[in-house]
Design a protein that fits this description.
1% strand, 469 residues, mainly alpha, cell membrane, globular, monoatomic cation transmembrane transporter activity, membrane, transmembrane helix, two-stranded antiparallel ribbon, ion transport, 2 strands
Length: 469
């Protein structure tokens, strides 16, 4: 009996080095056994860190600790680069708090795992096979040997674009009457927030006061547009800027679909709101076109707005919902189901209508596995949006249109808001936080990470075609 007690004590002794080995092995086998689970764990830990940081008295303007649900929601929104807020960024958070929000946006935009890999490269460490596999999945890299060079390109591209946008915006804010430190801070803030598609603003009324200023709206729009293309696309364009024939299929699909959505979104949004006196109806023709272009870019993930979302027409709200749900490019700072997902599904529909045996585009055949993933992502995303909308409808007395708008914005990490986030109880805030988290890490990543094991069958059932339609 005495021997058994000593054995139990030795087994669970917290000061025994073997106990820490067991804990490390447990974490390796349960959390870090796959890149997907590592992504989920890393993003969650980053959110926890910034939640604690924003809960500190120094992060608040008043010097009083912010309520936990506000700190948690803001941290989640920043790390997932969404931009939804329950409190005013300028009124609630101090300079320290805003710096923490901006840092969270930068880490969330690049990806917590990518940031870790970049830090490892910066201090001269060699990346292990597991780290390369993680970064490969994060950035959708084709060959494993390219991971190191791709990560460096990601860092240089991000810093280069953000620095350029900051250098353009800072003089403009100076000309508008702000002092040098304030102008520099606002230039840096908008540069990082826009390129990472975060949608946070240091002004209490956002970009609304600059709604007619081309020299503020243009740099912000360009940064959002570039961030939404995705790093693999930006890399391909940088390497072969004048040889579009040599671009990868992902780049061709992303650029083509993004261009179509950009033009179509601006056209439809402008037509719908052209005569609306509550939004742009009283503007001149040039200002209406500028607002329509800006809205078309922002509705697919940017999150900045120039008009009150409660004042837009119902048809405009529908257009915005669709664009938010689609989002930007794969492996980008944007959210949504991604433009390549929609492109693959539309190409499959066209192929089926034509009676083609294969889905073809740009001289390439798209494999069936890619089509299955595209359908899975779309259907899973639709299901998550429906469930989230139903839960919030059960919690509140808000109309369906208003709740659906906020849920899509949260899941697609867009950040446009009709003000519902500020009116929800803490339970509703946590629901939106969960939607932002799932939307950022991706439905496929979430499904893969939560699955205990992959199922492989050693046999095959006979085929039988069901009646469809």
């Amino acid at each position: 009996m005495m021997y058994e007690q000593e054995e139990v004590t030795r087994r669970f002794n917290p000061f025994d080095i073997r106990s820490y080995d067991k804990l490390r092995n447990f974490i390796d086998t349960t959390v870090f056994s796959s890149p997907s689970r590592t992504a989920i764990a890393s993003f969650f830990l980053v959110i926890v860190f910034f939640t604690v940081t924003l809960s500190l008295p120094i992060s608040s303007v008043t010097g009083e600790p912010a309520p936990f649900h506000h700190a948690f929601f803001t941290a989640t929104s920043a790390v997932t680069v969404t931009g939804l807020t329950t409190v005013s960024t300028a009124a609630q958070w101090s300079v320290f708090g805003q710096v923490m929000i901006l840092l969270a946006c930068q880490i969330g935009g690049l990806g917590a795992l990518t940031m870790t890999s970049l830090l490892a490269l910066a201090i001269g460490r060699k990346m292990g096979l597991r780290s390369k596999l993680i970064a490969q999945e994060e950035l959708s890299i084709g060959r494993l040997g390219e991971v190191g060079s791709v990560l460096r390109t990601v860092a240089y591209t991000s810093i280069g674009i953000e620095s350029t946008i900051a250098l353009v915006l800072t003089p403009r804010f100076l000309l508008l009457g702000e002092n040098l430190p304030t102008s520099l801070w606002h230039g840096i803030f908008y540069a990082i927030s826009s390129f990472n598609n975060a949608g946070f603003t240091p002004h209490s009324d956002g970009l609304v006061p600059y709604g007619h200023d081309f020299f503020v709206l243009a740099p912000v729009s360009i940064a959002v547009f570039l961030g939404a293309l995705g790093f693999p696309v930006l890399m391909t364009i940088q390497q072969k800027p004048f040889r579009p024939r040599d671009w990868t299929l992902t780049t061709k699909l992303t650029v083509t679909t993004t261009s179509i959505l950009f033009v179509l979104g601006a056209l439809l949004w402008g037509i719908a709101e052209w005569a609306n006196p509550r939004t742009i109806g009283n503007y001149g023709a040039g200002e209406k076109i500028l607002s329509s272009i800006f809205a078309s870019i922002m509705t697919r993930s940017g999150g900045f707005n120039l008009v009150d979302m409660n004042d837009i027409r119902p048809v405009t709200g529908l257009i915005t919902d669709v664009l938010m749900f689609i989002g930007g490019g794969s492996a980008s700072t944007a959210g949504g189901v991604k433009v390549t997902t929609i492109a693959v599904i539309m190409l499959a529909i066209i192929a089926e209508a034509r009676g083609d045996q294969f889905v073809m585009t740009f001289g390439r055949a798209i494999p069936v596995s890619a089509l299955r993933i595209a359908i899975s992502v779309t259907m899973m995303s639709t299901g998550i949006v429906l469930v989230g909308t139903g839960v919030l409808l059960a919690m509140t007395d808000q109309p369906l249109v208003r709740v659906l708008f906020e849920v899509i914005s949260a899941y697609a990490t867009c950040g446009l808001s009709n003000g519902l986030s500020t009116e929800l109880p803490p339970s509703g805030i946590y629901v939106l936080s969960l939607l932002m988290f799932i939307g950022r890490i991706g439905t496929i990543t979430a499904a893969t990470g939560l699955a205990l094991r992959s199922r492989r069958r050693l046999y095959k059932y006979p085929e039988e075609r069901p009646v469809i339609g």
